[in-house]
Amino acid sequence: MNFFAMTAPGLEGILAVELNGLGARIGKSLAGGVEFRGNREDLWRANLWSRVANRIAVRVDEFHASSFHELERRAKKVEWSRYTTPGSIVRFRVTCRKSKLYHSGAVAERLGNAVTRIGAVVAGDADDDESESNAQLFIVRIANDVCTISADSSGELLHRRGYRQAVAKAPLRETLAAAMLIGSEWDRRSPLVDPMCGSGTIAIEGAMMARNMAPGARRKFAFEQWPDHDPAGWRRMVDEATAGELDRSPARILASDRDAGAVTAAIANATRAGALDDIEIENRAISDVEFPEEKGWMVSNPPYGLRIGESGPLRNLYTRIGRILRESATGYSLGLLSADKALDAQLNLPLREVFRTTNGGIPVRLVQYSSPGCH
Questions:
Q1: Taking residues 6-27, what's their average pLDDT?
Q2: pLDDT by residue (tens digit) across 303-342?
Q3: pLDDT at residue 128, rounded to an integer
Q4: Contact residues for 230 (Cβ-Cβ < 8 A; gap 6+)
Q5: What tens digit of pLDDT does each residue of 103-139 get?
């Protein structure tokens, strides 16, 4: 079978590395995701273990369609019944570009007619905000008169781990936090410090990685409702994953923030994630953080300073971070999500750019500094 793992634009390279580590047969990396091949167990494994993907879709069919007559004719031959049952709810998310069929609503209507022939019920238009419903989502893309239909196997978006209910001022998506840790090359054994932790997402994702906790082990997936689903086989895979979890993180993880409200949110989120005992969470300024003596990593998402009047204080903050890494935490490598190259320069460290993406609609880059002898 052919699959497509979706992620935020810019994280395709990190996702490909992750999927390769899960044993997937990687195909092309496209804008917003990575193609891979495999069997049903590979699909399960990607949903269960991926920390960077937003959803995993199955390629259902692909065909030429330059008229509604052609679309309707081909839609009748699609194996909808592999992903739906009579009475089940179906949603379509359609995009059209550079094609004679350019009206997404009209395309969804024609495809819906084909699905209702097998007894499914078509709901309204679908978008990511509706992914929590029990509807089966079909993602349809018509480009250059070629129609590609994919079935979402994930259901609720994969970044929704379930623990992040309390958020700070600028919450970081779980998948981006995981991508930062992977891109920073943290080894999951050495100390991890986030001195601007916000609601604790980086530290919590780090604890889950260090303890080998599968992010999807305690949630439901869309594929569990498919007619050919093997509940016993899926249960065995989940049980094997949970049996492999460590009781405690082998890495010391420190999270702190000068904002007391952020610290309260981080503690609440870590408690829900089952990781509170793995993370030392404190209310303190970055200058007061005591780094463990052994070599480790600082991975953080500092303020971006895009509002007028913030550039001065942030220049001082970045200067302080650089000084800490040169003087106090000399064995530490750095992974920093940054929106401003001018602020990066204040670090006075040799940086490399790992990836570019967006966070909250703001263009950002993960920049990394590798401390000599840290790897």
A1: 95
A2: 887 654 456 789 999 999 999 999 989 999 999 999 999 9
A3: 46
A4: 40
A5: 999 999 999 999 999 888 998 665 544 544 689 999 9
16/5 Cα distance (integer angstroms) = 9
Q: Where are the beta strands (DSSP E) in 206-313?
A: 253-257, 279-283, 296-300
Name the CA dihedral angle for 354, 187, 252, 332, rounded to a multiple of 10 degrees.
Answer: -50
Span 230-261, pLDDT tens digits: 999 999 999 999 999 999 999 999 999 999 99
Tell me which architecture the domain covering 2-152 has in CATH: 2-Layer Sandwich (3.30)
Domain boundaries, the chain: 2-152, 174-214+228-369
Find out whether 292 and 251 touch, Cβ atoms under 8 Å: no
Q: Check: CATH 3.40.50.150 for 174-214+228-369?
A: yes
- Choose among 298, 271, 104: nearest CA to 197: 298
Is the distance from CB of 145 to CB of 101 less than 8 angstroms?
yes
The C-alpha atoms of residue 183 and residue 299 are separated, in whole angstroms, by 10
Closest by alpha carbon to 225, among 120, 82, 115, 100?
82
Residue 212 CA to residue 215 CA, distance in Å, equals 9
| Contact of 155 with 57, CB cutoff 8 Å | no
Strand, helix or coil at 201?
helix
Q: What does pLDDT average to over the chain?
A: 92
For the chain, the C-alpha Rg in angstroms (whole number) is 23
Which two structure tokens, joined as six digits, stand for 249?
Answer: 């993180």
Average pLDDT over residues 87-101: 94
Helices and strands (H and E) in the chain: how many: 10, 15
2-152 and 174-214+228-369, same CATH topology: no
- Over residues 70-98, the mean pLDDT reads 94
**C-alpha distances in angstroms, 239 versus 157, 204, 206, 310?**
22, 22, 22, 49
pLDDT digits (tens, 9 = 90+) for 147-171: 999 999 999 999 999 898 877 666 7
Average confidence (pLDDT) over 48-70: 97
